[in-house]
Predict the 3D structure of the following.
Amino acid sequence: TARTGGAPGVSDRAAQTRASSSSPHTRPRSPAGATAAPRTSRDEWSEESKTSEESRFPDWPPRDTMGVMDTLTRSTADTVAKTDAKKWAMDRSEALRVVFHALDGDDSGSIEIGEVLHLATGMCQTMSEDDARAWFQEMDKDGDATVDEAEYLEAMLKLTDDLSPQQFEHRIKDLLARTNKEVTDPRWYYHCENNREYLEAEVVPLLESGLNEMMRAIEAERLRVASGKDWDEDGHVPPDWRPIRPLQFLGEYLRENSRTMVRKREEEARLAAEAAAKAEYLNRTFDEMDREQKLRYSFDKIDGDGNGALDFDELVFVCRKINPGKGVEEARMQLSWMDKDGDGQVDQDEYVNAILEIMQDVDEETFVTGVKRVLTAIKFAKADRIEKLKMVFEHVDEDNSGELDRNELTKLAVALVPGGDEVKVRKTMKWLDANGDAAVSFEEFKGPMIEATEGLDDDQFDAAVHKLLAAEGEAVEPDPADDLPPKFGAYVTQFPTHAKCKWIGVKRVDSMTRDEKKICVVDCRSPDERAVSIIKDSVPLGDVKFVSFEDNNVEAVAGGADVSAACEGADVVVCVSAVGAEGGIAAPVLAEKLEGKVEVRNLVGGIVAWYNAGGEVVDGEGNPVEAVHPGQRRCIGFVTRARKNAFKFPKEEK
């Protein structure tokens, strides 16, 4: 680059920069202290230069300008015509072979009727499905219910004979675009119908923005270089300096601002926010976490592969341990309930929002107990048999001494013996404490327990251990709410009466019926609900009105009801309501009125659970019906019996 002298203006410096930018190996000199090269004007060209130019272009400028333009126009038209002819000159046999192999998804060398229907109706849009089936039978020369490549080519060449080259190419590319095979050869690539809208709505504005940004960047660079800001002390730009490369700049801009990269950055930002939130709650103890953080903590424990979503296998793994024997069914229900976007997985937000929704009216103690139960189930799910027995041992060892004393042994023996038979309890204690020193270490404990459970499969073993972990004092049956669908069970267990009154499940009622026990059913619902259907031979409690646990007259009606005659001689009194709410209020009141002469229990899940399990319901005249009133509109989804529920809420109740 020639050095320039004096103090040229900014435009001269920019001209120098543009000249020097043509080669990345040129190092421009500073504008300060350089000498200017003399410039040659157009009038000072030598005759030698003119002669040289004339020798290079002897027929220029042309004398007949219009003739030249006419020649150029004809030449251009001929070129376009030849280009169009070449463009539409598609080998039909080759193109049809490509379509054949695209339709032949299993690469068997033949296509079946469904694939042929797709092909025929795509190539000939006026052809009906019946016409296509008849055409298939005609094309299938050997009658093997498939069409091989030779049969296909012969038929398709006839079918497409009337299509113009443009129509044929369009149909071929359209068919290929609708197959599952990826098209990589540009000869067969087809621009879909929405491409123009996509280009106009997204690509063109992005390209325009990129060009504007590129021009601003180039102008800013020119001004910076021309100003001497980047020059070093020796009068050169730094050795690592390179001018902006427009195409590279534009390409990087389009890539970084494309929809894919924008979504990628948004996803990265979301993951970073989740990581920050996770770090926040992981630095807290469980008791210091709020509800949402406790749920996110439990989600992370369930998410075995750490991919941020729970799939069916992960839910089954935990659900089988929470409810042995029903894990697959429960996991399927959990997945369908929580998976709002229908992608077959439950992400953390879906999990947290679903649990918070059903637990919004639950007090803090019940909520924490539920989350701890899930965490225990997760720990339990990942443990082997020895570790599970260790969990039982630690559960019984209340003073954390590492040994079970006499009181703790008694508690464990009672938990192992339903009904609390004293003789069996003493035998169980002797079996656990073989040396009779009233102190059992874990090593002593696990021996007889492993021996006793050796014949159990994993689900049976887990069920036995699960009962011991859930037992407090005397052995009890599992909560019947665990037998309900997950969302229904969660809704029922949050009732304030669920933990206060005695309950009974549909399975237990069915078992007592088969054993010919006398059961007195007291219907604690409103007259409108009873008018839809009742359990046969049930006794109405009275004119019940229930809006919520704070707004109802159930206790007053139960206190004034006289059911002693109906309950006389009964083995158990079962209070029934829509889903268990009213029955939970009435059961303790009736138990007090009957003075302990008969046990009074609330049916968990109410008549809806009874109906779902296949229990018979009848109308006022005793005729079986396929209808049940769920009590409140929001409970209609809990009715899941295979047959359609004939009951519908009237429009005026909306």
